[in-house]
Every structure is written in C-alpha cells, then in structure tokens.
From TrEMBL:
Hydrolase keyword on record: yes
Upper classification of the organism: Bacteria, Pseudomonadati, Bacteroidota, Cytophagia, Cytophagales
Residue ranges of every copy of the HD domain listed in the record: 62-249
Protein name from the UniProt record: dGTP triphosphohydrolase
Keywords: Hydrolase
InterPro entries associated with the record: dGTP_triP_hydro_central_sf, dGTP_triphosphohydrolase_C, dGTPase, dGTPase-like, HD/PDEase_dom, HD_domain, PHydrolase_assoc_dom
Transmembrane segments: none
Source organism of the structure: Algoriphagus namhaensis
Domain of life: Bacteria
Length: 448
C-alpha cells in the first residue's frame, strides 16, 4: 500500500469530479465538522462511557470521551505526519500536510464510538444475547442466511458505526481516508478462519450488507488483503486505536479515582512508571485532588503520545506491507504500566457495584425493547393471525422512515428489517431507551 493513494481526498458517495469549493477548509476538516454537527454524534452526550447514567457531571460520557480521543488523535496524526513528510519527500508533491493527517485521525477518532448502543458494552452484549437466546430473537434464524445471522448474534459497535457513516439515507459522505482510518477491523463477521495473531481480526468492522461499500473504499485507497475475506488496516487506523487506548486507560482511571473507587495514592502509583523522572511529589502539595489528577493525566497522556509516535514511525512501512498488526500501546515503553492500570481498572472500576448494577438494568431495558418490537414485526410479517392491536400500537412507535412498506402478501426480506430495528434501538440515548421501556411496559405513562 502506498501513502500517496492512502491519503487521497476522494469522498464516499460522491463522484470523483466533485470538488471542494470551500478553500478555507481541507476535505478532512470538512469531515470533522460534518461529524460534530451530526445527530448521532450529539446523541453520545447521553450514552454510557463507564458509569451508566452518571449522577455526577464530572464523569465522562461517550461524547466527552470521543472529544478527548479526537484531541489525542490529532496530536498523534500531526506528529506522525510530520515524520512521514520528512521520510518521504515525494509525499509533499501531493499537497498533503501534517495538519491534514492530524485532521484525518481526529475525524476518525471522533466517530470511533458513534455506533455504540445505550449502556456501553453491556448494550452490545444485550443485543447479541437477544438474538442468541430470547425466543423473540431466535425465531428469526430460519428466515435469514448464515452470514446475516452471524451479524445479528454478535452485535458490533464498530460495524454499526461504519453502517451509520455510509448509510445512503443519513450517511455523512466522509472521505475514504477518514472512513478507512475509522475501520479498526476490516473484515465481515462471517469468515471461515480468524487469524488470532492479527489485532485487526479480533472483531469485525462491517455488516454483510455493507461489504460492497467497504470494497469500494478499499479499491479507491488501494487497501490490500491478508486473506480472501480480510483486508490490511489503513495505517492511520493504528493511531485512532492508540488514541482510544490512551484515553480510556488514563481517563477511566481518573474517573475511578474521582468516584472513590481507586484511591488517589494508588492512582499516583499507577501513573508514576509512565511519568518516570517527570513525576515530582512536591508539586502535588497545596493543590486539590482534582487539580493534581488533571496535571498527572496531562503529563501521562503527553508521554504516551510521544512514545506512540516513535513506535508508529518505526513500523509504518510494515503496516503498509501488512506484516505489522498489533496495538501500538502494547509495544510502547509504557505498555507494562498501561497493563497494570487495565488490571486495576477491571477489578475496581469496571466490576464495581455501581457499574454492574446499572449494566444489569441496561440488559433488561434493551431486551425488553427488542422483544416488544421484534414480536410485533414477526406477527405482522410471519404470523398475521396473531397480529394484535397491541402489536399495531407498538409498530406506530417506530420512526417514520422505518421500512414497513411491504404488504402482507409480498415476500419479506427480514434482514434489512431487523437491521433497521437495531439501528433504531442502538441509536437511542440511555435515558430515551429507559423512558421508552417504561412506557411500552406500562411502568410509566407519557407526561408522568
């Protein structure tokens, strides 16, 4: 793969002859602005990061997390871009700048969680479990193809994000470079063999009905394949992944300390190996815990950015050849320290009572919503004798553009129908999902 092609400015869903008439912004800055003003991005303000439905304003949501990941991503992209331009002078003839490479990573990082459902990773599991175990989910298996069923039984936020970004109805028409940098897992869900040594095959990055969209992007950018079903990552996807890894490691720890789940002393102990000789305990005296946490977090993130850029510069050629496929934060000098932070975070933050209780509630909410809507759809299209007045009322709650236009006597394609249902429910905010669940279950009434 060649940088000249990987960084081209073509835009998904537009003809190659379309030109940007706004000379004040680069194509990649336009990507960033389109994302910022989009409804799916705004919805992240009320989606769980670690602490579902937080009562404290200082705890991160998906929105604040995404903004911070984007900020770190811009720094990573700009510094890595400056090194690439120095290493490959021919790149300068394309007009690409280090700032634009930072803008690609910033835009892709801004969208990295845009496909996540309510209630965080518990929401992903809840959707998957519904189709694997719930009677109103398993009833659809005989009506779809095996590769479609694999999508439904393993909901993946990354694939949902790609679907949202390339949607014909509401897609943002981002540049191919930004879309590719967004895609950490360039493969479909249903493959005969997964190479566990490749980080890019750990999960999947697009649903089967977005395969042609991904293929178009791959051809345009010159993405190469590691197997008939899997592609190599765009090298900038490694930086997007690193930005996310850096932020959730350091900032989830900060949130855990603020919530009282990890002591300040233990937080300092965990950050010290990253800060090394930059850590000066004397500078912590006379300041509030919040001020000290902010200062330590900033220094730690700055160190991790520098280390990540060094490793990216070392391996970028191997990335383009497809021989490097690891998380950058797993091989930087501070990798062991990050591993220790993750270990403590799992024990004391991610498995804390407040998190587990609210995740359990999230399972109930999403299963409840999926069951009532799935039952109504199944009755309408496959069991019309049981299609009740209650089912009709439930279906009237679906969005106006929901594909209910097929008549009972027509052949039904259930996969896009179910994808649309998942779009509707996964796109909800935590509070909207909770309120709708209460209403359809009769627990509360509108206006109460």
């Amino acid at each position: 793969m060649k940088w000249e092609r990987l960084l081209t400015r073509g835009r998904f869903g537009e003809k190659p002859t379309d030109t940007n008439l706004d000379s004040s912004r680069s194509e990649f800055e336009i990507d960033y602005d389109r994302i910022i003003f989009s409804a799916p991005f705004r919805n992240l303000q009320d989606k769980t990061q670690v602490f579902p439905l937080p009562d404290q304003a200082f705890v991160h949501t998906r929105l604040t997390h995404s903004l911070e990941v984007s900020s770190v991503g811009r720094s990573l992209g700009k510094e890595a871009g400056a090194r690439l331009l120095a290493k490959y002078p021919n790149l300068q003839s394309t007009g690409i700048t280090a700032y634009e490479m930072g803008a690609i990573v910033a835009a892709a990082a801004l969208t990295h969680d845009i496909g996540n459902p309510p209630f965080g990773h518990a929401g992903e599991e809840a959707i998957s479990d519904f189709f694997k175990f719930h009677p109103m989910g398993t009833c659809w298996e005989s009506h779809v193809r095996p590769e479609q069923w694999a999508d439904l039984c393993d909901f993946e936020g990354n694939a949902q994000g790609f679907r949202m970004l390339v949607s014909k109805e509401s897609g943002l028409k981002l540049t191919y470079a930004t879309l590719a940098a967004f895609t950490k897992y360039p493969r479909p869900s249903f493959i005969p063999h997964r190479d566990i040594s490749r980080k890019s095959q750990k999960k999947y990055g697009f649903f089967i009905n977005q395969l042609s969209d991904f293929e178009s992007m791959g051809r345009y950018l010159g993405l190469e394949k590691s197997s008939p079903e899997c592609w190599f990552r765009h090298p900038l996807a490694f930086l997007v992944e690193a930005a996310d890894d850096i932020c959730y490691s350091i900032i989830d720890l900060e949130d855990g300390c603020t919530m009282g789940l990890v002591t300040f002393e233990e937080t300092v102990r965990l950050l010290q190996p990253i800060l090394k000789d930059k850590f000066n305990p004397e500078k912590l005296k006379g300041k509030s815990q919040s001020q000290n946490l902010g200062a330590l977090r900033a220094m730690a993130i700055g160190t991790l950015i520098r280390e990540t850029v060094e490793v990216f510069d070392q391996y970028e050629e191997s990335m383009r050849k497809g021989t490097f496929d690891k998380a950058l934060t797993d091989i930087i000098p501070s990798a062991q320290a990050l591993g220790e932070i993750t270990k403590v975070s799992v024990q004391k933050i991610y498995r804390s009572k407040v998190v587990l209780e609210k995740e359990a509630a999230g399972f109930q909410v999403l299963e409840g919503l999926l069951s009532v809507f799935s039952k109504a759809l199944y009755h309408q299209f496959y069991n019309p004798t049981n299609f009740s007045g209650q089912d009709k009322s439930i279906l009237r709650l679906l969005p106006e553009d929901f594909p209910l236009h097929k008549g009972w006597g027509e052949e039904v394609n259930p996969y896009p129908l179910l994808r649309s249902l998942i779009d509707f429910i996964s796109g909800m905010t935590d509070k909207y999902a909770l309120n709708l669940y209460r209403r359809v279950k009769g627990i509360s009434f509108p206006g109460s």
